[in-house]
Design goal:
Keywords: Membrane, Transmembrane, Transmembrane helix. This is PAS domain-containing protein. The strands form four sheets. The chain has a five-stranded antiparallel sheet with strand order 4-3-7-6-5. A five-stranded antiparallel sheet has the order 9-8-12-11-10, with helices on one face. Helix 9 packs across helix 10, helix 20 runs antiparallel to helix 21 and helix 32 packs antiparallel against helix 36. The longest helix is centred in the last third of the chain and has 79 residues. With 1382 residues, it is of the alpha+beta class. The chain has 46 helices and 14 strands.
Amino acid sequence: MNHFAEELKHNKQESEDALTVDLVYSLSPEKIPKYKKTLFEFYDLLSNSWIKKNLTKLRNFSAYLGIGIKQLQFQSLVLLSTENKNPSSYDSSISQLLNYIRFDLNIINVAGQATFTYFSLSIVFSIFIMFLLIFSQLRAKRKVLIKPFIIFIATVTWIIENYLMIPMVIYSTIYIQHCWFVNDDYVIVYDRKLVFNEALGLLFVIQLCMLFSLIFLNTIFNYTSAYSYETSYGRAHSSISIKQIVFLFLISIFHIIVDKKYFLYMSITVGSFMLYNYIEYLPYYSNIDNMIDGGLWLTLTTSSILSLINDYTSNGFETVICLLILIPFLYYLLFAGIKKNLERKSMSSEDSPYIYELKIRRLCFSKKKIDEETAKKIRNLFNQATKKFIEFKLIYIWECNFELKYSCDFTFAMMKLLKMVFASKRPSFLPKQDNIFHSFPDIESQYFYYNLFKKISKSTTLKDLILLKYLKNFSKSNLLDADACKKLIELIDINLSSSQYSANIISQKCINFYKALIEKDRIMDTYLKNYESDTDSMTQYRNFREQLFSASDPNVQSQNDKMRESFVNKLLGNNSEFNCPRIVVSGYPKEIGTIIFINTAAVELLGAHKSTDILGLNFCHLIPPPFDKVHQNVLERFLLFGNKTELKRPHLVVLDSEGFCIEVTMQFRLAFHSQVPYFIVDLIPRLPRECLVLCSPEGKIYAFSQELNGIITKEMVNIELLLPGILEYFVIYPSNQTFVYKNGDKNEMIKRIELVIDGEILNVVYLYEDESTFNFYHQEMNELRNFSKQSSVMSKTKDLKVFAKKQSFTKRKNRTSVSVEIKATLNAVDNTDKINFLSKNLNYFNFGITLLFIIFAISLTLAQLYYTDSKILCLIVKELTTIRYYITSIALTTRSIEISSNHVTGKSYSQYVNIITENVGNMSILLHNMKDYSSIYHVESEFKNEQMLIITSFQGKLSSKNINLYESILEYISKTEMLIANNFSNYDDIAYIEINGINNIFNSINTTSYKVLESTILKSNKVSQILSLIKSILFLPILILVMLSTIIFIPLEKINISQWTIISNISTQTFLLIRLKTIERINQLHQPVIDMEPTVSRNRKIYTVIWKKYMWLILIFAIIIIIYYLLINFIIEDCLLFLIESQQKHWYWGGLRRSLIPKTFLWSRESSLSLFNESLYEKFTELQEIRSITKEFKKCERELNYINRKIIHDVLDLNKFFFDFYDYLDLYLGSPCEILNTVSNCSMNMMQYGMHSAINIFESDLDYLMDVKDNNWKYLAQKENTTYTMAQAIFAINHFFSDKAAFYYENYSKILIELCVAFCVVSLLFYFYFIRREIAKIQGILLSRNQISIMFKDSSLYRSLSSLGETNIQSSQQVLTKNMYP
């Protein structure tokens, strides 16, 4: 037995459940990513657009014109960088003329900066948007308005690349620089001031990146490939063009951001480098094209050198004139250098793929028509380049284009293109190279590879491609069918051992089988559409249920391989009467030589049991040693260096499965699929088969034909032992000549053919039968083999007869027990529609309830934030307290004006008037604002309902009248305005303001404000209570969901119980029969499996509920709702209400304290006026309500002290309520001047230790004035200024507290919103990732068990079962096992 037979035996033992070779992977080993494939398709459309095909001459002229414009634009930049320049020189004049080539400068001067800004941004972003639209359509495989978009992109990109690139880069760089790095608006480049915006600056950053990407990709993809004569502007690679784009961007950017002198140095360096690249690599086919593009950098380098020389000379010179004189001479030198370098490199022996490209290019362009000799030289150069630089992928692009152009053989061109698959891994037979060259950029070679493959595939009809596609689809169906069979066996085995496993595991096995069956049917539907005429081959997979769950004979052998091969022959157009042995061999480097398909004729020729014994082996295993090693690299050499796509080798000897040799004519031909090469190999046997021996020239026997088995023994290692003296005949008689061998009584007709394979000599010796002893031995051995075959057939037939006898004994015994179980199982009903309907409704109910919760939570959150808005409620209280302060302040200021004629006061008359005017104006606005709050709180009606007594004066006589508070304030404002108009000369108005401002109106506003305060707080609490009551309804939908789920789960659970009952009542005989049929199917269609006998220990009461996990999920969902309810109702909302109430109370008490400061000072000052009988008490003795001055002062002082302590106590309570108000507390106990930076004169001594200390000092000073009755008016004036300052400070403190509380209120409002959003997101995620999946799982469990119930209820199955019986099944299983594994 040789190595091939040993490999077959090893392969048979190692393979268990899977196929030997995975055709699905083998036929599609690697795929291009979708995004890259779409990008290639986009640029393929762009390269073949209308503007590219129809405007070739215009585009070429435009390209040359674009180079000239770039030269002028660069010259303008160089002149701008020249420092030693006379304004009256030619350089200055030419610089002004060159400004017209600067399109950015022209548009800014003529149409304005905004026009060029939006023009620059709009064209780049519009290209990007259209690119995304086309890209998305190509991904979706749709084409809507693609042609107009492609034409627009091609046109605009063409214009930008040739004319606008440098101006747009310069302007974008200037805009970005002046937005963030330079504060000056003056731009030197444009010699003017410009306006910059940071948002637009960010857009310009994006625009600059997109502009570079656009031109970069356009440079790589949007040009013709190598050796194309259609356009003169063709090139072989893009590396030089990419460098040019990069340096164009860098020079434009560095012109703005670096010093002028450094820019000139960098221009010289870059220009010299690029000039060297154009001369050294010669990227374009035409020398003129290389000269024109290289001239751009020649001009830049020369002009930069002249500018530097000019800067270092004292007097300077005309650089442009010098440049114009030098340019013709420099261009002549450049053209001569390019031409000379092309000749030198084409004759060079340097090791570089670019050198080979130049040599091939020169041969291609040297003659108009290439003859056979030149083509042979070019192909030799390609082969040499492949050996040395196999990693350089562009070689294969060049070679493929060459063959397309000159040989016009698409298949041969495809063969050259597919050499690229070896670029990632160098074949072992090629010598290793020290310098490895890779294509740069690699995506360029990938793009041309993809497009060329696509082009060749469309241009030619490759019949073998149909075969490979068919094999791939067939293999996929085969794998899915095998997977379904395996899952079915697992399901049966787990049911037969159900006492050892839980019901959940059995359910999971049901689901696995159901999913495998559904996936198989889905792929089968696609398979049916693609191969409608393949009726025979499709039947073997379509009849899965019919074969396994029907009364078919398990011993019937299918003819599936023959069915499939007949369809393969139809696909290839072959004659069905002649079925040639054929194999398909992979050409993919990682598995080259692997046999991925073999037909039945080849299996029979090689003597294997079935195709899976050979699939996965290497092709070299068919070749006898030692020539198998010679053939190891034959496929790789053929792909890399072959000159044809088909190869025929006559007199080739291959080995069969037992190691005997067979003479065949082997025909190779190349096929392609998924950008990978394959070989279709036909093995045409020589008929009739002859007796032959393979031996070396020395006589060593390598192999022999099966007809000589037994004649040639193991000891016969040399042909001399079989035919003594035969080597002498070989010397006498030449190859391919028949001669008679005589040795004693042996007379044989012998023919020798000498084969030379890669330098190795092989002798094929043919032994023709004659009347001799050799002939007798040959016939005798054949008779022995035939007798052996007959005896094996008889033994199998005998086993089948014994099997039939055993069957008759057990029929009656098992018929009764089987029929009982059949009746129980036949009650199975197809509940598919019912399961789908109930599951769908359960899913809808859950989704609806989840949406209801989300809508409910969002609505409640919005209502909470709207009806408990702290800003509006606090603003109402704030404005009421501010009106109260203004009334008191006006009364104090009016009183100060009145006494300022006799005594010293704190301010001048004009200052007092300004204070009163400002207060009156503000009070009028606040009073008008009351109407705006009517929708939230009816403040105006409260003021109108509050009745009060007003003291009026007429000609010095006081009187009283009843009026509401709102009218009294209006009248107060009116009297004050009249008083200002009369320069405070009306005594009656003064009396009205002084008496009512500090007494009646003040008290009424206090009372009304407190009512409003209590009402707003009560209203907020009521709204919160109502919302809390509404929130309690959150639990109602979950109760509804539980009820609906219960209603739906009752019929589902009934179905579940009935399914478990049916599965439990399926007989053991039924399971064993179907298991036997499944194993038979696997052995017929797939790789055979070892049939292990199942352990039978069944549990007849299998059952598990399906609603338990679902109900746990509903309970978790209810817990989430409860947590959300507790968080928002008892934590967040309590904090919000507390903050609202604190803000309102603080504004009320803080505003009252602010109003009491001037009122307290007023009564303190009245004590000094009483010494002169000028106090209000003496002035209005008729007013009985006013008590003594001392009592009024003490009353105000006590109220001020009480309010001050109350506010301190409230602030301390706030800190206890986990709010950080320590900085607010510092205003009272520390230095407020560090915080109250808006208060003037805050640095007075009495406020250095906090507002609390300042108020106590203020009260002590006023007590002192009351006690000593001092008439120090300067001191009183000082205290009056202190009064205004402290009122201002208190107002600032109130605002500070309000802002602080509002900050916390906003934070907690955000937390409320975030909790709402989190709840909505968690609810949706919980539904989609848990509840919905659980419902789908329940549906899958029920549908899978329903499918199994339907399968097992087939009446023909039970009739077959009742006729066989359990013993019969066991016997048949033993017979089948014996036949499959002898």
